[in-house]
Write a structure and sequence with these properties.
With 179 residues, this protein is of the alpha+beta class. It is 49% helix and 17% strand. A five-stranded antiparallel β-sheet has the order 1-2-3-4-5, with helices on one face. Helix 1 (2-45) packs antiparallel against helix 2 (51-65), helix 1 (2-45) packs across helix 3 (72-89) and helix 2 packs antiparallel against helix 3 (72-89).
Length: 179
Amino acid sequence: EALLQSQLTEQGALQTQIEGITTTSREMVPLMQDMLGALEQFIQLDLPFLKQERGARMDALRAMMVRADVTHSEKFRRILEAYQIENEYGRTIETYQASLNQNEGGSPRTVQFLRVGRVVLVYQTLDGLESGVWDQEKRSFEILPSEYSRAITKGMRIALKQAPPDLLRLPLMTPKGGK
């Protein structure tokens, strides 16, 4: 009788959990939509690095959200994975080539970007004659004096693991009157 009573208690607990799954499932979709919206807004307000890669990731997540053949758990896992990738950008140094269109009338040109966490985004032309830094307040790149060229080149070598980690003297374009 004690075993039977224990099994009935366990059965009742499992039934309660099953009923709770339906509620949890209904609440998961709005939560995931809110998470995607927040991530998309974060990316739009962040430094403009790896635009194509980050945009493609968001497009894939949005497309996955409307698919019925993907489970809620898989959708949630992929959203969390995107959050982890974005989090990782804040702790890494990276260099990559991309197109830069600085002026509205000018033609795009290929430059080498250097990103140090989410603190600094600089570029250098392939010939090394021009460098610039992202000004978050103006939401545009500002041309840098030539004194930063060597530090940017050194940072790129560090990012490519061609040089040991070292201190870099790079400009910080901090917002004025920030909180």
